[in-house]
């Protein structure tokens, strides 16, 4: 996730993209998918080696995916709501 954020920031600086033009949502799906696959792999490994700490870490990875997607969805909804309000005025 840090690599994605660094890539987005670097890309924004290099292309001088304004925040409202940022391709943030385009990074959401691949990042969430990678985090989900990592959580599933951790869970499978935890079961195979019978490791409670790794199983807990797997649950945290899955929780991060849910929170990441939820925050991004709320942010997108807020932006669309604000744009709709600007159109009415």
Summarize the SSE layout with pairings.
Layout: H1 2-15, H2 24-49, H3 52-88
Helix pairs in contact: 2-3
Description:
This protein is mainly alpha-helical and 89 residues long. It has one domain. The protein is built from three helices and no strands. The chain has helices at 2-15, 24-49, 52-88. Helix 2 (24-49) runs antiparallel to helix 3 (52-88). The longest helix has 37 residues, at 52-88.
Keywords:
89 residues; mainly alpha; elongated
State the major sheet. none
Outline type: elongated
How many helical stretches?
3
- What's the total count of β strands? 0
Order of helices and strands: HHH
Gyration radius, to the nearest Å? Answer: 17 Å
Beta-strand share of residues: under 5%
Whole-number count of domains: 1
Mean residue pLDDT? 78
- Runs in which pLDDT lies below 50 for 5 or more consecutive residues are none
The CA-CA distance between the termini, in Å, is: 38 Å
Portion of residues in helices? over 70%
Structural class: mainly alpha
């Amino acid at each position: 996730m840090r690599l994605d954020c660094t890539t987005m920031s670097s890309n924004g600086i290099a292309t001088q993209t304004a925040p409202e033009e940022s391709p943030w949502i385009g990074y959401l799906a691949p990042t969430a998918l990678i985090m989900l696959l990592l959580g599933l792999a951790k869970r499978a490994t935890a079961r195979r080696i019978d490791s409670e700490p790794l199983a807990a870490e797997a649950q945290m990875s899955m929780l991060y995916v849910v929170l990441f997607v939820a925050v991004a969805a709320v942010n997108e909804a807020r932006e669309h709501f604000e744009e709709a309000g600007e159109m009415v005025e």
